[in-house]
Amino acid sequence: MKYEDFKDNEALEQLRASGTNIIMGSLDKLIDWGRSNSLWPLTFATSCCGIEYMAVGAARYDFSRFGFEVTRASPRQSDFIMVAGTIVHKMAPVLKRLYDQMAEPKYVIAMGACAISGGPFKDSYHVVNGVDTIIPVDVYMPGCPPRPEALLYALMQLQRKVKVEKFFGGVNRKEKKPEITQVID
Amino acid sequence: MIALKEKITSLVPAAAFDEAAIPTVTVAASEYKQLAQQLRNDADLQFNYLLCMTGMDFGDSLGVVILLESTTHLHQIYVKTVTADRENPYIPSVSDIWDTARINEREVFDFFGIRFTGHPDMRRLFLRNDWVGYPLRKDYDAGEALNPVPTENEDIRDTTLTYEALPDGAIAARERTVFESEEYVVNVGPQHPATHGVLHFRVSLEGETVKKVDVNCGYIHRGIEKLCEKLTYPQTLGYTDRLDYLGSHQNRHALCMCIEEALGLEIPDRVKYIRTIMDELQRLSSHLLFWSCLCMDLGALTAFFYGFRDREKVLNMMEETTGGRLIQNYNVIGGVSADIHPNLVSRIKEFLTYLPPMLKEYRDVFTGNVIAQQRMKGIGVLDTATAISYGVTGPSGRASGWACDTRKRKPYAAYDKVEFKEAVRTEGDSFARYLVRIDEIEQSLHILEQLVDNIPEGDYAVKTKPVIKLPEGCFFKSVEASRGEFGVYIESRGDKNPYRMKFRSPCLPLVDVVDMLSRDGKIADLIAIGGTLDYVVPDIDR
After folding, report:
1. Following DSSP, what letter does each residue of B162-180 receive, concatenated?
2. Is CATH 3.30.460.80 what the domain over B2-142+165-176 is classified as, yes or no?
3. What is the mean pLDDT of chain B?
4. Contact (Cβ atoms closer than 8 angstroms) between residue A111 and residue A83
5. Mean pLDDT, rounded, for B109-123
6. What is the value of ipTM here, to two decimals?
7. CATH architecture of the region B224-537
């Protein structure tokens, strides 16, 4: 894939276009460089997509090349959750709890058609139509199941997203609560 | 067949006997239990294997259809019983006759609300306790308003109800405790790396010793059987691949064969050979994954990379022909969706020389390892009679000395044309289950060796009608999937979509025996037992 295509979908880097203080900006860059290259996933999979997730962890696709190799069994130690597979009604509160247990900053990847929208099971009485109804999703990865290459691409998109974050400027600065000027009935 | 009919009418004169490829006996609920007992114990019948239990909604009445098989006489029979009461349906339980009925009857209760009198544990199996209604009933309202996506965790109860039929016909409900309040109960799952998916074990511990395991399924129950009822037959095929995704080709094979047999389609030899080759490739990929994951569960991480390295080679072959790595969608009604890739034959031959030295390496690295042997030998022993009673098929059943290979017992596709050894061991422990799978890898290679040069010329699919309608009746077909006997039961009313479609999951009995196998063992053995049983959770939950 060409580098231009890789950055094609949405101009995430625009978020940094306004410029920052040179010292703070450099520190930000250093932190983001470190964080984006050691994103640790949670060992979590519900169905078919989980097998492709395992395949990416194995020797042929090997996502440790990009810093993802340490899959954590505990949500407390993981940076992102890969929702690999269908989420059903009974699983929904469990997934929510897992997400809540993860330490900030945390990210979510919706892997496969089921996690995005319910996929082939969307008409079922027991299937949640998209995990974004329960937890916020950062990267959507279509496929049933997605190929390992697609998974790597999605992980790199997540890295891109992490790389534009501001630690010292922007997001971490406490915003004032918006003043309520008028109450609308 | 005639002997079977005479025998049954002499046992229960009121029973209706319907002769077909597999005969059906219909009895009233009051005589159901008595007939079941006789079918099980009579020396000429010996129906000791409950293959499939299907809950049914006939519109005006509810009922159960069980498919029985005898492992000595090899005959099969359907037993059907109905109850007209839709408000408070009761049917006698047969869980004391066949152990596998226990979990199957819980499933029927969950889906249809039929209560089984004499069943020790009438809790829901898949759905939450607060679920409203019984989803597989025809009049079920699937609207979001009735059962919204829950936000709170499930309140798991420690008590259950059992129903008893009193002599005067009344039903008495009695409360039974699953876990006493002083028991120390630890949750394993639903999110736990060693449960191979989202399975929830509640384990009662005394120190490190497991006293009881309660399985809580349903965290990936997708309602596939209900979905199938709304779809046409070609549309239902896609779901079978996603049941047990490590046996996707075999599952789809079973459904295609079931529909083809019902339609009376003649399948060309080429298709049979291609399907058999693909089945065996699938088995190879599944058993290689089993080996990798078991080793990883027991702490040998390097083995995981070895197994996956070789599995990728199998996936490559399948991908070239079918277009899919994991989920292939290759079988269609009447054949396969595309002809084999020109490279397939040469690649399989290459693989046949590649894998045997790797298997030797596997044995050197893991099988002979002292730690691995100590963690598996004598752990979780399952004897033959219990395996049959629980319906534990596949490699796990064969490790307990039950020669249950569907490829041998009921040959289908091209399995009658090949020679292979059924890997059977008698120890019944985790190590035997492990070794059976390694032996099966060798046998799969042996089967491929015989088939690969002899693929006959011909069409890769026969033409079918644009709209496929099955004749009225019930149809069953099973195949040997990677984990055991996978069966498809279709009840057709002559429409273009099935009236009821039930999948006989090979993994449901496997998870059912975990409690028995791990009792009085150490908690760490639970991992070895679960790993060697090798269940796939979406196949349990369907």
Report:
1. EEEE-TTS-EEEEEEESS-
2. yes
3. 87
4. yes
5. 88
6. 0.85
7. Orthogonal Bundle (1.10)
